[in-house]
Amino acid sequence: MKTIAILGSTGSIGTQCLQLAALHPDRFRVTALTANRNADLLFEQVRRFRPDFAGLVTPPEGLRVPEDLAFCRFAFGPEALRIAAAEVPADMVLVSIVGIAGLAGVLDALKAGRQVLLANKEALVTGGHLVTDLARRMGKPLLPVDSEHSAIFQCLQGAAGNRPVSLLLTASGGPFRTWPRERIDRATRAEALNHPNWSMGAKITVDSASMFNKALEIMEARWLFDMPAEKIRVLVHPQSIVHSAVEFADGAVLAQLGVPDMRVPIAYAMAYPERIATGGERLDLIRLASLTFEPEDPARFPSLRLARECLAAGGAACAVLNGANEAAVAAFLRDEIPFGAIFTLVEDALSALPGLPADSIEDIYEADRRAREAVAARMKGVQ
Ligand code: NAD
Ligand code: MG
Q: Does the C-beta of 149 come closer than 6 Å to ligand 1?
């Protein structure tokens, strides 16, 4: 029996992790649950999974804990994350919070000696060196949940210590894969949220449409697998069946395939190194008939170039890209800017804030704050 704490239990990844825990009550016991503000769903989850602790970071005003949940300890406010990550006993902590808000939870869980199951890519994008150094020092390597990184991690299990010569990161291309740039620039919220293959939280869905998701994933792969950016290639693969691949010195390429279903990588991290049933559909290659691959298009999607430039620049450049993107996506989701402004706002923030350091978590938060400020200051100009 493994115990698990979930930071971000009400989201797309968090709820799928709970589905797996419900499917395997003999294997997993949930000890802590946290969310941002969705009290109704959190209380329902507490009723069902009976954790020792639950909390909300931004509780709604006048919130009262229902009487039947008196068995559970609750906390409301930012300390809820630290308690769930580090105080409540758990073998594993799934960090499925969205955005840089996940960074502190990852560091707290590692410091407490927990095994981190990492869905939150923004923690590695912004604080990759701090997170991976700490994981190494604690002897607790991160278990990736992001489907591409889980695929690479799964392929490496059969590598007998041979290092890959390159990583092939697949990308669905999102809903605007075939659109001309002028149409992408004017895309609506509904169009951006209409992902062809995956059902995910709003922020990552918009990131998939802009290809900033793949930009963040290049950074995530750089830290998870200690690979230089030039050895991480992006392949646009609209069917999302090949979840990623690794290439070795002899030219052999190992890939991981499956239907697009996040329960597979979540279950792999939860039960690692074992494989367990997920309740999902099985892959039928005959029905699928063909898998196709295309190169990335830097003219329509500048996101990948910006990621590589930030990795080459070092310092807090990746944190600036991330903070500017989070602010721009939030503004787009509030219908305050057109889709194309996401690209310009991120690029402008990067030009305005070169050379910031990232030696400590305070440096990273400062870079994030300044990137958001730069976006807010520029927004009036693009509205
Ligand atoms: P989501 O928006 O569906 O859920 C986010 C969760 O985090 C919710 O429980 C929410 O209450 C909580 N949360 C949000 N802001 C918070 C804050 N400031 N402090 C504390 N908690 C907060 O997001 P998601 O789609 O589940 O994605 C979660 C993470 O996993 C993201 O980093 C995303 O990039 C990554 N990821 C998601 C998928 C997917 O299929 N959804 C796939 C790969 C990677
Ligand atoms: Mg992914």
A: no
